[in-house]
Amino acid sequence: MNETKFRIVVHCSGVVQGIGFRPFVYRIAHKSGVTGYVANLGDAGVRIEAEGTKEQLEDFLERLENEKPPLARYEQLDIKWFSNLKNFKDFIVAKSEKKASSSGVSYIPPDIALCDDCRKELFDTKSRRYLYPFIVCSACGPRFTVVEDLPYDRERTTMRDFPMCKDCELEYTNPLDRRYHAEPTCCPVCGPHMTLYSNDKSIIDTKDPIREAVRLLEEGYIIAIKGIGGTHIATMTTDDDVILKLRKRRRRPARPFAIMAKDVNTIKTFAEVSDVEEQLLTSYRRPIVALVKRDDFFLSKFLAPGLHTIGVMLPYSGIHELLLYYTKEPALVMTSGNYPSQPMAISNDEAFKQLKDIVDFFLLHNRRIVNRNDDSVMRIVDGTQTFLRRSRGFVPEPIKLNFLDRYLKDSTASIFAVGAELNVTVAILRGKYAYLSQHIGDVENLEMLNFLNKAVKNLMRLTNVKTITKIVSDLHPTFTTSQLANELAEKLNLPKISVQHHFAHIVSVMGEHEISPEESVVGIAIDGVGYGSDGKPWGGEILVTNYKGFKRAGHLELQAMPGGDLCAYYPARMLAGILSSELSNSELEEFLLKNHVNDFRYGEREINLVLKQINNGINITYTSSLGRVLDAISTALHISNRRTYEGEPAMKLESAAYYGDPLSIKLP
C-alpha cells in the first residue's frame, strides 16, 4: 500500500547563498528520500520544493534545521504544506530565479578566509591546485568583492570572465564534491593568474611570480600586491631603513602599518595573544587585531612608532598563504594600497597610476574586483570584541536590531543614513536590519565621493532595496556627506533628518544594548569634535537621551582653540589655549618659551602670534572636546606635538600610560 505523499515549499532567508547551501540541501534531500529542487532567488534567499511521505519530509526538515553548513544562518524558514503533487522524478539543483521571496530577509555572506581543506590542498603536491593562489571551494573564498548582482551565481560574479575547464566543471556538477556549485571555483588551467610587473609596467619573466616577489621583498623592495578586496603595499618588517623608506614614499611619518604573519605561533614571538584574540585572529573573518607588543618586540620599531600595540592579521587567501609560506620574514607589512586621500586601488590600472611613486614592483592578478573592501580592524577591550573598522569579513552582513520589531509601523521602509565625513560608512535600515557598507574612508574629495556613491548603489542592489523612504545625515551643514544627503533628498523628494553627532553616538549604544524606546539614559559621548546643536564644536558631552531626542545636561568646560582646527593638528596651540585661562599672559609666554618652543612649527614667532590671538580674541573657537584636552596633555608631557593621523597624540598618550607605574603616583 502506497503511503500518502505531500509537497512542501520552503523559503529560506538569511545567509543561504554563497556558502554551499544548495549542495547541502541536495545531499539531505537524497538522504531523506524526497524529490524536488532547490534554487537561489534574486533577493539572496533560497526556495525549496520537495515531495515525499510525511515521515520523509519531516526528516528532511529536521536535517535542514539542524545540519546546516557552518556559515549558514537562518533568519526565517517559511514552510508551507500542500496535498497536490507535481510528481518530481528526482531532486536537483535548479536554475536560479531572479524573482524575490515575499518572506524573510536574506543577504550574501562576506568574503570568507581560506578553509582548512583548501589550505591543506594548496600545499599538496598531488593536487592539481598545488600552490595555486586562487584555490577556493563552496565553504571559502571571495563573495562580496566579486558579486555583481543577485542571485549569487557564477555568471553574476567576476568569475564569469573565466569559463571552467572540463575538470572544474566535473567538480562543479558532482554532488559529492566540495566544489559542487562553488561559484568561484577554478584551477591553473582556467582561472585567474598572477603577474609580476616592474615599476614601468614591464612584465617580469618568471615561472612563479609570488616566489619571485618574495625574493624581492626580502631584498628590501616595496611591492603592491592585489588581493581579494583591493591592493596592499607590502614590504619586510625587520628592517628599519625599509620601513622608513616606505613611510617617506607613502607620506605617512607615523601612522601604524598593519602586518600579516604566517600563523599564531609566529605572532606570539612578537606580540601578546590572549585566547579571545586568538579566536578572533583565526576566525573565518580574519580581521586585523590590535595586539600588545611583547617586551622583547624584535620587529622594526617604526612599524607602529610610539604605540604599545601592533595591528596583526593572518593570511586569508591563497595569495597571502603563499607569500608567507615562501618568506623567511616573521611577518610582512600589509598596508592599504592607496595614494593619500584616494580610495584603495582595485584595478591594475589604478594600482599603476596611484602607486608608481610608492612601490618598486607590482604583483597583480587579472580577476576584477567589484566591491572595494578594506581589512577590518578590531580590538579586545575587557574581553569584548570592539570594532575600530568594520569591513572585510563582515560586510554585507546586517546588524539585527531586534527591539525594533515592536515599534516598526512599516517593516518595508528603507532609511538611508550617512554620518560625518571622516571614517565614513553608510547604512541602510530595512525593517529591523541595518546594513552597513564597507569602510569608505574620509570623504573630502571627488574621488572619495564617487567611491561613496558606488558603494551606496552596490549596497542597495545586494540588499534588494529598490526605493528609499527617508534620508538621515549628520547635523554639520558643510560636511560632504551632509551635502550629499541634502542633494539626494531634494532629487528624490524625500524627507531629510539631521542628527546631532553625539546624540547619534549615544543612540547607537542604546541600540546595541536594545534599550527600549520607553526608556531614557544618561549618556556620555567624548570624542575629537562634533557639530553641536548650538553650532559650536562639542566633544565632551553628558546627554539625557531617548530615541526621540536629548537634553544637554552637562559638558566639559569650554576651552579656547587659537587658530581653530589648527589645534587638532598642532596640539601645542591647544595647550596654550587651555593654559590661557589659568596663567597670565606673561606666565604663559614664559612657560611656552621655556618648555614648548620646539612644539610650535615656527617656534617663538608662532608663540607670539598665538598669544596675540588669545589676548585679542582673533580666530578663536571654543570647544568642549575631550579629544583636544588629551592632545594638549600629550604635548605637555612631550609625548606628541603633532597629529599626522587621526588620534595620534591621544593614542601615544595611552601607550605612555600603559607602560607607566600607577602605583608610584601619590594622590593628594
Report on the architecture of this protein:
This protein is α+β, with helices and mostly antiparallel strands and 668 residues long. It folds into 6 domains: 89 residues, Alpha-Beta Plaits (2-Layer Sandwich), CATH 3.30.70.100; 83 residues, DHBP synthase, CATH 3.90.870; 172 residues, DHBP synthase (Alpha-Beta Complex); 101 residues, Nucleotidyltransferase, domain 5, CATH 3.30.420.360; 51 residues, Nucleotidyltransferase, domain 5, CATH 3.30.420.560; 102 residues, Tetracycline Repressor, domain 2 (Orthogonal Bundle). The chain is 29% helix and 22% strand. It has 19 helices and 26 strands. A hairpin with a 5-residue loop joins β2 and β3. The longest helix is centred in the C-terminal third of the chain and has 17 residues. The radius of gyration is 28 Å and the shape is globular.
